[in-house]
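User: Please run a holo structure prediction.
Assistant: Happy to. Please share the sequence and the ligand.
User: Here you go; the ligand is S-adenosylmethionine.
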Amino acid sequence: MLKSPDEWDSQWETWFHRYSQGNPRLGKWLLSNYSITNENILEIGAGSGRESRFLSQKVKSVTCVDFAPHAVRLLANSSLPGNMHVLMADAANLPFPDKYFDLTFHKGFWILFDSNAKLEILLHEQLRVTRHISLAIVQNGLNNRQVREAGTKAQKDPLFRFRFFIPSEINSLACKIVTEHGIRAHIQILKYGAPSLSRFLLPLGALGDRFAVKIYKFLPWKFVECAVLQIVKV
Ligand SMILES: C[S@@+](CC[C@H](N)C(=O)[O-])C[C@H]1O[C@@H](n2cnc3c(N)ncnc32)[C@H](O)[C@@H]1O
């Protein structure tokens, strides 16, 4: 399932523009859930950088890393705000000192990996560069409808061939890494996104966005788009 940087690049071009222009819903959710206005943020596997671009208006600085050269070039050449930085780097070997960022996150990144052993390496590296909060946002396997829809789309477009996660799976993975490396942290699984709710709220614009970010946590898992692994170092 995992693609090499070149393979990824060849598929990404068409999606870059579409993703960049979408609603930065995750950025809005992050701002409503975390006090990050004075913080340095890292987005791993940033792709279009849509969420980071939105966050850059509100936080101290945001850094995007991605390992695909063309993806990085597209983003770096797209007139970035002064506090947004883009770097080509492998998420398994990040070029930053320990605890360099206050909050680190990625979305739609772990879903590219079949192997839990690889995810463990990626999580350990993410935790290393994080001072406070690490987030991993993955597609929720308890939402049968979105699993089916992705299966149908994958027949035409290989970009939709990705992994879904059951919330307890990512909780176990995080517990294993935190325990093995003696990291003192609180682990929680949160809910983010709901495609049907978003469609319903779309006509309400910004008001709908504000309402949506408050409501995800009350939805049953079968309607939720993503599970968020939240690890807070103590
Ligand atoms: C599905 S995209 C993420 C999309 C992104 N969240 C967005 O909103 O545009 C996954 C990204 O992870 C990157 N990626 C895959 N493996 C990587 C690795 N080992 N290190 C860094 N980036 C990687 C890919 O190049 C791709 O841009």
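The chain has nine helices and seven strands.
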